[in-house]
Amino acid sequence: MAQTATMTMVTVVLMALTPICFSKITNGGYLYPQFYDQSCPQANDIVHSIVARAVANEPRMAASLLRLHFHDCFVKGCDASILLDNGGSRSVISEKGSVPNSNSVRGFEVIDQIKAALETACPQTVSCADILALAARDSTVLSGGPSWEVPVGRRDSLGASLRGSNHNIPAPNNTFQTILTKFKLMGLDIIDLVALSGSHTIGNARCTSFRQRLYSQKGYEQTDQLFAARLRANCPQSGGDQNLFFLDSGSPMKFDNGYYKNLMDSKGVLSSDQILFAENKETMEVVKEYAANEEMFFQQFAKSMVKMGNISPLTGYRGQIRKDCRNVIG
Predict the structure, then answer these.
(1) How far is the C-alpha of 105 from the C-alpha of 114, rounded, in Å?
(2) Element at 7 (helix H, strand E)
(3) DSSP conformational letter for 223
(4) Contact 21, 34 (CB under 8 A)
């Protein structure tokens, strides 16, 4: 009896001394930052080194890798379905051909390099879904943004959803209510919407993604006219679809709160950005707070990224660990 009581007390003390780093998932599984500590302790370093090299070669790649994680999580959860190519043993119809992704999402070669290095170090251990989550964090940090511990332990999907990609990912020309609804369907709230939109402090937008607001009455009313004139100069009413524009022309490669300051000056490039300040009082107040306090934005961005990374991951024995992120095994 005394021995049992002593054992119980020791267990309680150890539990109290051990940091709780688990991220509870609605399907019953757990993600936690230490998942690969024993099976692949070098995983974080491998991902970081390759992302750092890619971003050094092309700073734009940071935004591209961050966007890959976002577009993955909003379709079937954070399961690397976005990385699958067409065909294969399961006749996959790739999400890469969807309207939000076609001629737009990029960075697949960097993910391939990371996966190849991890397969050499720790064969069939680190999932492609976790690579996306880690690469998104590292891209943010390398651009000057906040860091956070990434809960890992996701597994990779056995298929893709072209329909989900076409319907679930918020579009630049969606109404505010449509965008908010898409976030809520993923378990994200209005604060997450404003914070995660702040990722547009880096990266580019194609002319085709914001042309509509440049030549509409509503867009005209919501946009600084000198700024709009500069955009129209290289984004005509027809042609130039793939012409690129910085989402934050003031500091396009630096992850900061300049994005929110732009919105307050009516200089948001995408309609989905500017409406955060123009059409909803609650989001307007949050935009003001983040524009005034970069640290507040950074803290919430990190929290919202972890929250987004928890969207319906495959854990336990569900899914698989792919050897090649572009193809399902078997």
Answers:
(1) 17
(2) helix 2-17
(3) S
(4) yes
Planar angle of CA 130, 134, 135, nearest 5 degrees: 115
Instruction: Write the pLDDT tens digit of every residue in 44-98.
Output: 999 999 999 999 999 999 999 999 999 999 999 999 999 999 988 789 999 999 9
Handedness of CA 320, 321, 322, 326 (dihedral sign): positive
Q: Are 320 and 329 in contact (CB under 8 A)?
A: yes
* Segment holding 44, helix H or strand E: helix 43-57
Q: For residue 245, list its beta bridge partners.
A: 205
Q: Indicate whether 208 pLDDT > 80.
A: yes
Beta-sheet strands, E only, within the chain: 23-24, 30-31, 204-206, 244-246
pLDDT digits (tens, 9 = 90+) for 1-15: 444 444 333 333 333
- Indicate the helix (H) or strand (E) that contains 292: helix 281-292
Q: What is the DSSP letter of 152?
A: B
Whole-model pTM: value is 0.91
Mean pLDDT of the chain: 91
What token pair was written down for 3? 């021995």
pLDDT of residue 216: 86
**Cα–Cα distance for residue pair 96/86, rounded to 1 Å:** 9
Nearest 5°: CA angle at 315, between 181 and 77? 20
Phi then psi for residue 320, to 5 deg, are -155, 170
Tens digit of pLDDT for each residue in 254-299?
999 999 999 999 999 999 999 999 999 999 999 999 999 999 999 9
Would you call 167 a catalytic residue per the annotation? no
Query: If DSSP codes are grouped into helix, strand and coil, which group holds residue 85?
Result: coil
Helices (H), 108-174: 108-121, 128-142, 162-168
* Structure token digits, residue 84: 């699958």
Catalytic residue among 69, 71, 167, 200: 71
Q: Is the dihedral of CA 249, 146, 148, 59 positive or negative?
A: positive
